Amino acid sequence: MRHTRSVSPWLVTALALGGLALGLTAPEATASGAPRTYDTGAARPYSTGTGTVVDTTAGTVRGTRSGELNSFRGIPYAAPPVGRLRWAPPRPPAPWTGVRDASAPGAPCAQPVGLPVGTPSENEDCLHLDVTAPARADGRLPVIVWIHGGSLMYGSGDMYGPDRLASAGAVVVSVNYRLGVMGFLSGTTVPGADGLGLQDQQAALRWVRANAGAFGGDARDVTVMGQSGGGYSVCDHLASPASAGLFDRAVVQSAPCATGGTRTRAEADADARRVVTALGCGSAKGANGGAKATEACLRRATPAELLKAYGPFNEPRPVAGTELMPLSPAEALRTGRFNRVPVLVGVNHDEERGAVLGRELAPGGAPMKPEEYGPAVREAFGVRADDVLRRYPLSGFPSAGEALATVLTDASWSAPTLDTARLLSRWTPTRAYEFAERDTPWFEGYPAPGFAPRAQHMSELAYLFDLDLFEDVKAGQSAFRDRMIRTWVGFAASGRTDWPAFRGEDGHVQSLSSTAWERADFVRDHRYRFWAASAPRARTAQPAQRPDRKVTATTAERGAATAR
């Protein structure tokens, strides 16, 4: 009999956050917004057969070899953000002498206890990355920089085994970055603290530009790739002037840029006030000795105290209307003022199934009763509930849980992803996909679900990475997995896929499954026109903007026409 883990409220939370997220909705740029130049040849060029000792810009590292792959783990890409550097932008790492051991991953960044998508940690010294590369790489391989998900609250790069992607012909870099209260505290409370997790990622991308060649990658061919919280980070890199010139292609998985990626100053300040109050540091306005005293109190707190005060149930984001993020991703895409590189953007067919299943499997939970479906829709959609219920009648589904999951998927994921593809394709080469596999692995060691999870949130990752979180991919799906991996690596190399680019209002969305690799009937399948008419998500007012800042074209943009 297979051992099963007990299901706690943590699982339910995990299935509702944007990291397990099953269901809720070059140096920095110059003052003008133009990217600074960077030296891609600062590290020693890689030559075939040099083994596992590599020179980087900060010093020499020794990795390990397994089969045909070299692995270098725990390489610092920035100085430890500790002491006076807590809540400070990332600084270059200190050089070292001798050969640094790179056989083990660095510590995960500080994050709360409990979620399977995360690793409990109180570490502040965490700005490390891992590099996995074919042992015979020749300096011409595409580089994929993986930004892990976890609602910008949880996770670490080493959780996602990259060997399959690397074996397909890519140099894969996995990044740890500051999370939650350490990475996204409001700059109103602690000056300079806005969006530090995103700035960490930018520092890692600058490191990649300078060092990829030493590991056999092409520093001029960098793809930034993320899923869920990491995918929203990719949306932010597309929109941030400080990311200009740091990457050449982008992959956005389960993160519709049209509805997410940033928050307002008011939202960030409210988060900070909760932390200040919980720690007894006075108010963010300085009622207890002034703003400097409040900041000093926060800096005296331990990571454990800060994590407890911030809590586990947050969705931190960078703040729009700042120098780092002048525009929200939605506004940047709407106006064309973003880093125009080829983009692969996609969503899973059944994103919300995991969230509904999590509630059913929780202590005291049970399969949703038919009479509970209507009230659940009314709670979610308010005055629009009658229209939703007419469009999604319970009689059209095998169970109430599956009906609710379909409604929430279409409203919160499918329609906004199509909005995102439409916005992107007006300005830059765009490929769109829908992961639609119906026979996906469930979470390892957890009780069997009440209905099939299908293409739930995060399920596509089991086909791209080796993840302890999931059971094994089903027998007979090896060819499908290999095709997905070839597609992702091929896009990183060329900006193309084996299906057409998305163009116009009725652009091509490719359905990806083990039984069919063909164009999806996406608009009809997800009732897009109903949601477009009733919920203009991409057209809502955005946070305060700075129209004087403009994202400039990069070298990748100038060559993007070849990917159309």
What are its keywords?
564 residues, alpha/beta, 11-stranded mixed β-sheet, 3-stranded mixed β-sheet, 18 helices, 14 strands, 30% helix, globular, disordered N terminus, disordered C terminus
Explain what you see.
The chain is built from 18 helices and 14 strands. The protein has 564 residues and is α/β, with parallel strands linked by helices. The strands form 2 sheets. Strands 3-4-6-8-7-9-10-11-12-13-14 form an 11-stranded mixed sheet, with helices on both faces. Helix 10 (353-361) runs antiparallel to helix 13, helix 11 (370-381) crosses helix 12 and helix 11 (370-381) runs parallel beside helix 13. Residues 1-42, 44-50, 284-288 and 536-564 have low confidence and may be disordered.
Please give the structural blueprint.
Blueprint: H1 9-14, E1 53-55, E2 60-62, E3 64-66, E4 69-76, E5 99-101, E6 128-134, E7 141-147, H2 163-167, E8 171-175, H3 180-183, H4 196-211, E9 217-227, H5 229-239, E10 249-253, H6 265-278, H7 291-300, H8 303-310, H9 329-335, E11 343-348, H10 353-361, H11 370-381, H12 385-391, H13 400-425, E12 430-435, H14 461-464, H15 478-494, E13 509-512, E14 517-519, H16 522-525, H17 528-534, H18 555-558
Parallel strand pairs: 2-5, 7-8, 7-9, 9-10, 10-11, 11-12, 12-13
Antiparallel strand pairs: 1-2, 3-4, 4-6, 6-8, 13-14
